[in-house]
Each structure stands twice: as C-alpha cells, then as structure tokens.
C-alpha cells in the first residue's frame, strides 16, 4: 500500500466511528451549519496575490513541521499578512490536525477556509460545513468519477465550494465536470512525495478556463509564483514554507510583501 492508500483506508475506519458518535442529523444542528459561506473562488479572481496559507503541524513527508503550532494565533497572522484564504489540515492520524482546529480558525478570522482532508464519504462534507469550512478538497487520486460527481453535488447543495486536486493528466481528464469551482495541481506526488513545479506549468493549458487554477505544494519563492501566474494560476497553496518558521504569520507577511513589491 502506498501512503495515499494507507490514509484512505484509515479514513474509512475513522468515518465509520464518527458516524456512530455524531449522526448526520446532529451535524445539521450545529451553529455553523446555516452560515453563508465566503467564496474563495471570487477572492482568488479579485485578489492580486492569491496566497492560500496552510495550517499544518506535521505530514507524512515532514513529521515535525511545527508540532506546537496554535491555530488561532497563526490564522490571525495569516489574515493580517493578507492571505486570500486559509487551508486547515483536519486529518489527525497523519497530519496532527482536527475539526477543532478548523472551528478555532473559523472563530478567529473572516477569510474563506478550506477543509484539507481526505474526503471519501459524504458525511465528511457535512462535517466540513458544520465546522465552519467554505471549501472542501476532493483528491482525484483517491476518488472515481462517480464519487467526485456525487461529493461535488453534495458540497454545492450545502453552499460549499469545491477544489478538485489532480496530479497528472489522466486524473484531470477523467475528473472534469460541472460543480467544481477550482482545480488544484499538486506539485507533490502524494505517492512518492517528489516535488516538481513543472507539473503545474505542464497541466495548466489542459485546464479549461472556467475553473480557477491553483498550484499546490513546494512553493517557497515569490519568483516561482510570478512564473506560475504566467501559466494562468490565480491561487497558490503554501504550507511548509510558512509553518516551518517560528512565526508563520510573519513569514507569510514577508512573503506577500515581497510578492507585491
Ligand atoms: O507544505 P507545502 O509543500 O507548501 O504544501 C501545502 C499543500 O499543498 C499540501 O499540504 C497538500 C496538497 N494537497 C494535499 C492533500 C492532502 C494533504 C496535504 C496536501
């Protein structure tokens, strides 16, 4: 089993447990469930920098990014830095995150929030909405076309936006459909952890113009963003480069300042 298969397998067990503990009907009663979502897509279309800053304590490829990180402080820092949105890792087993992190970020800031997790069941989309997310991530590498269609439809029904993540042309071609708002090209191969920014540049022209394009992972320099912008990318998902510092908010602020300057 590769890491992605391992994560998905664990996720199935986790979701079954969560469903037992908190039935879907209970999620619908939580206060954020009726909240009107903030559009990340619109912000990326209007926003000049397009930085989506990520809150991530650890990952399978980097086991100690920032284990003591406090989500409220960092979300506020990212907002002050001028991020277009914030991505919050909610997977606990492999990334050290939680839905509670997402809820705390929701209390702290008014930016669009992406629930960053491995969605394999509709229940998780209800969880995302209930915890205050505005956007969900669907990862093509672990979903078939039917699942993507079904999950995207559910997300739209709940007022959430959908970011579809692809890593190669095959995933992109079999996954294009209505109800997707943004397409993210992951520069990190989740099966091998290899990073290649060329991946975004190569896939860019194959993504129809109606989808906002986001380049994900391995971005640590503003020159890389200028290049990616030339290929039509409007969003840039950055985690480790900010999180691996003492003050991720400050690091994001400096990065965004340099990008604008
Ligand atoms: O820390 P980086 O290299 O800046 O990457 C951020 C983000 O793209 C990465 O965390 C990510 C992209 N897709 C994912 C899917 C699941 C978990 C994590 C991810």
Automatic annotation (TrEMBL):
Pathway field: Amino-acid biosynthesis; L-tryptophan biosynthesis; L-tryptophan from chorismate: step 4/5
UniProt keyword annotations, A-Z: Amino-acid biosynthesis, Aromatic amino acid biosynthesis, Decarboxylase, Lyase, Tryptophan biosynthesis
A Pfam family the protein falls into: IGPS
GO biological process: L-tryptophan biosynthetic process
Superkingdom of origin: Bacteria
Catalysed reactions listed for this entry: 1-(2-carboxyphenylamino)-1-deoxy-D-ribulose 5-phosphate + H(+) = (1S,2R)-1-C-(indol-3-yl)glycerol 3-phosphate + CO2 + H2O
Record-annotated Indole-3-glycerol phosphate synthase domain positions: 4-253
EC numbers, comma separated: 4.1.1.48
Signal peptide location: none
PROSITE patterns hit by this protein: IGPS
Entries under Gene3D superfamilies matching the protein: Aldolase class I (3.20.20.70)
GO molecular function, one term: indole-3-glycerol-phosphate synthase activity
NCBIfam families the record matches: PRK00278.2-4
Family per record: Belongs to the TrpC family.
Name of the protein in its database record: Indole-3-glycerol phosphate synthase
Taxonomic path: Bacteria, Pseudomonadati, Bacteroidota, Flavobacteriia, Flavobacteriales
Gene that this sequence comes from: trpC
């Amino acid at each position: 089993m590769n890491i992605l298969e391992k994560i998905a397998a664990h996720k199935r067990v986790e979701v079954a447990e969560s469903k037992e503990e908190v039935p879907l009907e209970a999620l619908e009663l939580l206060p954020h469930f009726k909240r009107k979502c903030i559009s990340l897509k619109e912000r990326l279309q209007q926003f000049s920098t397009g930085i989506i800053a990520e809150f991530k304590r650890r990952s399978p490829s980097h086991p100690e990014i920032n284990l003591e990180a406090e989500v409220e402080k960092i979300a506020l820092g990212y907002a002050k830095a001028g991020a277009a949105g914030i991505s919050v890792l909610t997977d606990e087993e492999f990334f050290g995150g939680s839905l509670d992190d997402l809820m705390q970020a929701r209390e702290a800031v008014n930016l669009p929030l992406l629930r960053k997790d491995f969605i394999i069941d509709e229940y998780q989309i209800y969880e995302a909405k209930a915890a205050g997310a505005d956007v969900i991530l669907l990862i093509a590498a672990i979903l078939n076309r039917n699942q993507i269609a079904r999950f995207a439809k559910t997300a739209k029904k709940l007022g959430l936006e959908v970011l579809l993540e692809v890593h190669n042309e095959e995933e992109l071609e079999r996954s294009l459909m209505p109800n997707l708002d943004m397409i993210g090209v992951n520069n990190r191969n989740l099966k091998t952890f290899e990073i290649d920014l060329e991946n975004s540049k190569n896939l860019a022209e194959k993504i129809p113009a109606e989808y906002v394009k986001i380049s994900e992972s391995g971005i640590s320099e503003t020159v890389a963003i200028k290049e990616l912008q030339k290929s039509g990318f409007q969003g840039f998902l950055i985690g480790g480069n900010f999180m691996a510092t003492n003050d991720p908010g400050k690091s994001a602020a400096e990065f965004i300042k340099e990008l604008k300057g």
